[in-house]
Amino acid sequence: MRVTTLMRRLVGVMSLFVVGVRWDANTLILAVRPRWLKPRCGECGERAPGYDRKGLRRWRALSYGRVRVFLEYAPRRVACGRCGGVRVEKVPWADHASWFTRDFEERVAYHAQVMDKTAVTKLLGISWEAVGAIVSRVVERTMDEDRLGTLQRIGIDEFSYRKHHRYLTTVVDHDTRRVVWAAKGRGADTLAEFFSLLGPDGVARLKLATIDMAGGYIKALEERAPHVKIVFDRFHVQRLASVAVDEVRRKIWREMKGTKAASAIKGMRFILLKNPWNLSRKERRRLAELQHTNRRLYRAYLLKEALAAALDYKQLSRASRALDDGLAWATRSKLPAFVKLARTLRKHRDRILAYVTERITNGVVEGINNRLRTIARRSYGVHSAEPLIAMLHLCVGGIELNPPVPARSSAMPPTQP
Ligand SMILES: [Zn+2]
To answer: What is the SS3 assignment for 59-85?
Structure first.
């Protein structure tokens, strides 16, 4: 086998010729050219007449062991009729405007799925900015284009980054448990962009959306997809009740500061907010004592539990009755935090009860947001939304990359066990 043929097999791109091999400053330089003779436009792929030739350029390819490998070629420029101007020609080993071969880019993305920034940049010897651009290109190439075509049940949530100064809106497919869309911003306008992308047919196909009670998303859903059943996340409802309990506790604490009664509620915060089945025996005893030492706070606790219990019912009629009872009690409770909560929940009653028939929460979306938080924290350069969105698609968008596996050769006998 000739060396150039061997080198082409090593590069693994069949539509190129290796025309020369040389060793330069501890790197292997392969002079290459596309197999096709007539140049094609790098932007649209159309054949186009050559215009002139640019200087030599290098593309980083996968290393051979410890040896770094570059492909070298002087690309032509073409006068493209379709794009209407002079463009650099297309090369078969890399994307337009990339300095890395596709195989190399896929290796980078594979590592970025599982490793942190420092490890990736050290292992592959490229800058973090380059990793960001590579991830965006790989996502563009490998993302499932049909992911929006079958959407029926979606979860919508916001994700904050840069210490709650910036936001992303993420949309998850409940059935594949993957992120299908993300964009900068939050609220009605951002979600409206998603509906525009989906188009009328896609919107018509949607059946259900889980959200928390954030106003913006409700507005966009009501305006752009009024047929979609909105299900409020039950855990968000319960969190609001917990916030109300805590508000009651703090108010009582302020009123009683320094008195003996105050010491009775000291250290009660976590006991009040815990799920009852997670309470230790000692904690349960303290809660029981609260019945006598502070009736108001105990009432707040019972209200929170009553609202949670209403959503445990499997039958809608029972759940509605329990929820209505709970809300009526909250209204009469003389606890301002709960009076206010009851007003909010009553406004959204049907969408809260939708959980009982659909049995679906925003848990998947929140789980994905937790992954995203890890990604952002792994210092994946979250200065702007774009690299973060690309990382989100790469890590939780269902993109499967495999490390390049050496092809099994027919010349080599299978190893004996
Ligand atoms: Zn073109």
So the answer is: EEEEEECCEEEEEEECCEEEEECCCCE
The CA 261 to ligand 1 mean position distance, Å, reads 79
Q: Cα separation of 18 and 29, whole Å?
A: 10
Quick check: 218 pLDDT over 60?
yes
3-state secondary structure of 339: helix
Q: Are strands 27-34 and 16-24 parallel, antiparallel or unpaired?
A: antiparallel
Output the CA 39–ligand 1 centroid distance in Å.
Answer: 11
Tell me which long-range contacts 17-24 makes (C-beta under 8 A, separation of at least 24).
none
Distance 90 CA to ligand 1 centre (A): 9
Question: Does residue 296 sit within a domain?
Answer: yes
Please give the average per-residue pLDDT across 154-165, as a whole number.
85
Give 89's pLDDT tier (boundaries 50, 70, 90).
very high
Helix or strand holding residue 125 (H, E): none
Q: How far is the CA of 370 from the centre of ligand 1 (A)?
A: 42
Position 108 in a domain: no
Assess whether 256 and 342 both reside in one domain: yes
What proportions of the chain, in percent to the nearest 5, are helix, strand and coil?
Answer: 50, 20, 30
Q: Which of 321, 329, 314, 313 has the alpha carbon at shortest distance from 349?
A: 321
Statement to judge: residues 331 and 365 lie in one domain: no
Measured CA to CA, the distance from residue 265 to residue 188 in angstroms comes to 42
pLDDT at 381 over 60: no
Identify the pLDDT of residue 274. 87
Report the separation in Å between the CA atom of 193 and the middle of ligand 1, taken as the mean of its atom positions.
Answer: 29
- Looking at the fold, whether 387 and 346 belong to one and the same domain comes out as no
Closest CA to 105 of 385, 384, 390, 382: 390
Reported pTM: 0.81
Give the range of the structural domain holding residue 256, as residue numbers without chain letter: 234-358
Q: What is the Rg, in whole angstroms, of the alpha carbon atoms belonging to the chain? A: 30
Residue 93 Cα to ligand 1 middle (Å): 18
Pair (216, 279) in one structural domain: no
